[in-house]
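User: Good morning. I'm curious how magnesium ion would be positioned relative to this chain. Could you predict the structure with it bound?
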Amino acid sequence: MTISLPDSVIANVWFVGSSPMMQELRIQIARAATSWLPVLIEGPTGSGKELVAQALHSASGRIKPLVVVNVCAIAETLFEDSMFGHVKGAFSGAISDRVGLLGEADHGTLFFDEISGLTISAQSKLLRAIETGVFRQVGARADRSSDFRLLSATNFSLDEAVRAGSFRSDLRYRLRGVTIRVPALAEHAEDIPELARHFAREARVVATKELSDGAVSMLESQPWPGNVRQLRSIVECAVTFAEGPNVGRDDVIRVIEQSHSSILSDGDDVERRHLLDILRTFDWDSKRTAEYFGVHRASIYRRMHQLGIAARQRRRYGGEAPGAA
Ligand SMILES: Nc1ncnc2c1ncn2[C@@H]1O[C@H](COP(=O)(O)OP(=O)(O)OP(=O)(O)O)[C@@H](O)[C@H]1O
Ligand SMILES: [Mg+2]
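Assistant: Good morning! Here's the predicted structure, ligand included:
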């Protein structure tokens, strides 16, 4: 079957890359977007799974938003309340109704990120709602329903999780109407120049800066275990720190070397300045800063605390308190 104009179907989501793999991915997205089947998006970290989810949602024409649920971030004790919501008076403190994530996704798309992180008990609670779209809010006397398109993403093979006994086989089948596999960057390395130039243009710097051919070939020679996200971080930093309008090979090498030097080494002013630079580059986004350094987010919080980059610097929005982890 030929799908015409796959690019235009997902046009409002930037999807860079003209390699055969990326073209195939676009076709799969266009094809899946026309059906109602749940889609399981598989791929390594930073490869673009959330972007695929956004593209699927945007191409589906659903009028309501994409509700992104990072299942690992929901505490077990709050799972039902977060997912299904509650009615007023359900428990002390329930002073008004809460719709819950499934209700919020009505006429929209529900995207379960890192689905393999669901506990077995949470999987059991979700199964019926996913099968039927029907669920009961905490404290309610009757069921309610929600019409959502279901997408989920995983870094780990659900088949392996099922074999290991940590994932319910029946839920796996419910999630996997269609599987879309997002390749690692190393599998479509020919897209690196196009991606790198795109990220250089996107980098929020005042003047336009161009990546030189030498910088691009340096980027092409790297292994990219953190995939497209890591490429983006390195390009953004190289563009930010390069002094002239031309981002050279040396600018890229410097950023790559700095990102390899662990921030867990002995603290000093240089390290403090470097960490501050990177935090500012990523607008105080600790997740992206951690990805840049290749360490866990908790290590960033700990190091910020040790280096005296503390609560006074906390992000203006999001309310995330460095040092709180
Ligand atoms: N083909 C692409 N074109 C443009 N940007 C891309 C592409 N693929 C990935 N990106 C960008 O790379 C970054 C990482 O992508 P995304 O968050 O979708 O990855 P992910 O697979 O969900 O990662 P994780 O498993 O860590 O959650 C994002 O900034 C995204 O916009
Ligand atoms: Mg993701």
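The chain has two domains: 6-181, 187-313. Residues 248 and 268 are 28 Å apart (CA to CA).
Let me know if you'd like a different ligand tried.
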